[in-house]
Amino acid sequence: MPTDNKRVRGPEVSQCPSLFSSKPAASLPLKGPRADGRQRDQVDVRPVFVRCGLVSQAKGSAYIEAGSTKLMCCVYGPREIERKDETDMTCGRLVTDMRFAPFSCLERGAWIQGSQEKDLSLMLQESLQPAVCLNKYPRSQIEVNVMVLESSGSVLAHAVTCASLALADAGIEMYDLILGCSMRQDGASYVVDPSRGEESRRSSVAEDNQGGLTIAFLPSLNQISGLESDGEMTEETLIAGVRTCIEGCYKLYPVIQQALCKAVRRAAPPPSES
């Protein structure tokens, strides 16, 4: 009997699909140290690794790694605006695009930009725009592209810091660097630079002050360029959260300055021998 070569044959050995199902996540403790060893109710951010100038095709680029959160940012421009009807004769335009890699989350995503990515791109633009000297670049646009390689919490805050480094690496004139920091409030307790599990956690007990906060901060000017909040928090808790995030930004500031100085030294021409 002739065989059907066009039919796709199944595997010779099969296994039960339940073997590949993910295990339920363990509940996070409300007291004591956090899962990664950091302390609660303290400005305890994750160790950060930063590098500038990794992408040679871009005008400026930066890579940041905080725990398991990894992002890459590339800056292109300033370049002439394609549509002449959108040209501003007095100042330039900042265009941001933030996307998640398909392998960055637990569930594989698509390359098509979703609603969450569009919201994050808008918040990123609103955080960066006050710090960029757009009046120095009339009739031109600066493109900032952020790619999330691995998402493990506090993505927007680290995207702001990474984009600021990439803009500085590209030689774009700015009033100050922009640093991002986030925190999560859970009743009377809070965590700074929360992980993915801490961000998605919801308390089973109905309490006040349940929400998250992310700020973009200009440390030299002592100004806030962007603020994003979700959940329900009282006014006193929100003010205390802003001060906590500002303190977290000041902790990151020396690391960012050192990475930027190293990038400038690498790009500087060698001293001439006389």
Task: Describe this structure as you would to a colleague.
- The protein has 274 residues and is α+β, with helices and mostly antiparallel strands.
- The chain contains four helices and nine strands, in the order ββββαβαββαββα.
- The chain has helices at residues 115-128, 155-169, 196-200, 235-267; strands at 48-52, 60-66, 69-80, 93-100, 140-150, 179-186, 189-192, 210-218, 223-232.
- It has a five-stranded mixed β-sheet. It has a four-stranded antiparallel β-sheet with strand order 7-6-8-9, sandwiched between helices.
- β1 (48-52) and β2 form a beta hairpin.
- α1 (115-128) crosses α2 (155-169) and α2 packs parallel to α4 (235-267).
What's this model, at a glance?
This protein is α+β, with helices and mostly antiparallel strands. The protein has helices at residues 115-128, 155-169, 196-200, 235-267, and strands at 48-52, 60-66, 69-80, 93-100, 140-150, 179-186, 189-192, 210-218, 223-232.
Please specify the SSE layout and strand pairing:
Elements: E1 48-52, E2 60-66, E3 69-80, E4 93-100, H1 115-128, E5 140-150, H2 155-169, E6 179-186, E7 189-192, H3 196-200, E8 210-218, E9 223-232, H4 235-267
Parallel strand pairs: 4-5
Antiparallel strand pairs: 1-2, 2-3, 3-5, 6-7, 6-8, 8-9
Helix pairs in contact: 1-2, 2-4
